[in-house]
Design brief:
368 residues; alpha/beta; Cytidine Deaminase, domain 2; Dihydrofolate Reductase, subunit A; 9-stranded mixed β-sheet; 5-stranded mixed β-sheet; 28% helix; disordered C terminus
């Protein structure tokens, strides 16, 4: 299953709305083929692995072989044929499944079809690791919204800019490289209008100066304040921009002319219903969202219990109380109201410290 997971991780951020599944086929000690799910409309991991194995070793070698797959094979006709049919037709003898598919159209039916065909199926192999990899898909299927990761970069005293607004660069080059890797593994990157106006980010994933990924760009802009000349609206054949806004916002025609998709949300005057916004993003096919907005957006998402994971990068600098805080107010009056987190890890990124934490059962005790 380790090889299947290794393959699956290569597809992260490239297969939405489908999960990035990994598959491996072997017989004895020999690996015959590996595969990862292709972008929508392309073959799933199981079919890719089977095709490679047959092309390299022939159909006879594949018959009687074993397959490991990170997620239960699909069993219905969609854009592609059912993976269960391909596995059965290829003569696979044993299938090792990382975790059951939470999608209502599968949910154990794929496993049942394989067993009915006489295939030996083992379920729950490296289940925790497989479920962790597919956390975005599980979040959408079980809770109706993407898995949300909040990235914060600040000084040691939690400031993201000086009183004059200077913020580049608080963290170092290794931290920035990590952020680009995180972008490349995410379906989308989200910012608020304040960050878009202040920094004019491109929101691409880069390695050095080379663009290696273009996640979906998500902009929260209730009043459509961000000019259409901004980089977030820049057209590219591989780029997609979603704008969460209010139905009556002025300038809709100009924004639509850039090719951006407008998603109308309810909300209080000057604000947006963020929970509804996350449901809208799931409806647009997104399963994982990396949030890079400022302190206002970060606090708003935390107040609504919409953050699943936090990556906080601390630089060995001090700005003081007159600097811009990394988090706006959370409205906490008692410690029992604070978001509850658990540590995932702490490490060094050059001179900076990288802290990872995840929400746990507590205040809201639910994914909204």
């Amino acid at each position: 299953m380790g090889l299947a997971l290794e393959s699956a991780r290569r597809g992260a951020g490239k297969t939405y709305p489908n999960p990035s599944v990994g598959a491996v086929i072997w017989k004895g000690a020999e690996v015959l083929g590996r595969g990862v799910t292709r972008p929508p409309g392309g073959p799933h991991a199981e079919v890719v692995a089977l095709s490679r194995a047959i092309r390299r070793h022939g159909e006879r070698a594949v018959r009687g072989a074993s397959m490991g797959v990170t997620l239960e094979p699909c069993c219905f006709q969609g854009r592609t044929a059912p993976c269960t049919r391909a596995i059965i037709d290829a003569g696979i003898r044993r299938v090792y499944v990382g975790c059951r598919d939470p999608h209502a159209r599968v949910s154990g039916r794929g496993i049942a079809k394989l067993r009915k065909a006489g295939i030996e199926v083992h379920v729950g192999i490296a289940e925790a690791a497989c479920r962790e990899h597919h956390r975005g898909f599980f979040a959408v299927c079980e809770h109706g919204r993407p898995y949300v990761t909040l990235k914060l970069g600040s000084t040691l005293d939690a400031r993201i800019a000086t009183a004059s607004g200077e913020s580049r660069w608080i963290t170092g080059s290794q931290a920035r490289a990590l952020v680009h890797r995180m972008r490349g593994r995410s379906d989308a990157v989200m910012v608020g209008s304040g960050t878009a106006l202040a920094d004019d980010p491109a929101l691409t994933a880069r390695r050095g100066q080379r663009v290696v990924g273009r996640p979906v760009r998500v902009l929260l802009d209730s009043r459509l304040r961000v000019p259409t000349a901004a980089q977030i609206y820049r057209r590219h054949e591989d780029a997609r921009t979603l704008v969460l806004t209010r139905k009556g916002a002025r300038g809709r025609r100009n924004v639509a002319a850039t090719g951006a998709e407008l998603l109308d949300l309810p909300g209080p005057p000057g604000g947006l219903d963020l929970a509804e916004g996350m449901r809208a993003l799931a409806g647009a096919g997104l399963t994982t969202v990396l949030v890079e907005g400022g302190g206002g957006l970060a606090a708003a998402l935390l107040r609504e219990d919409l953050v699943d994971e936090i990556h906080w990068i601390l630089a060995p600098r001090l700005v003081g109380g007159d600097g811009l805080p990394a988090l706006a107010g959370l409205g906490v009056q008692a410690l029992s109201q604070t978001p509850r987190l658990e540590w995932l890890g702490i490490g060094r990124l050059g001179d900076d410290i990288h802290i990872k934490a995840r929400r746990r059962a507590g205040r809201g005790d639910n994914l909204k």
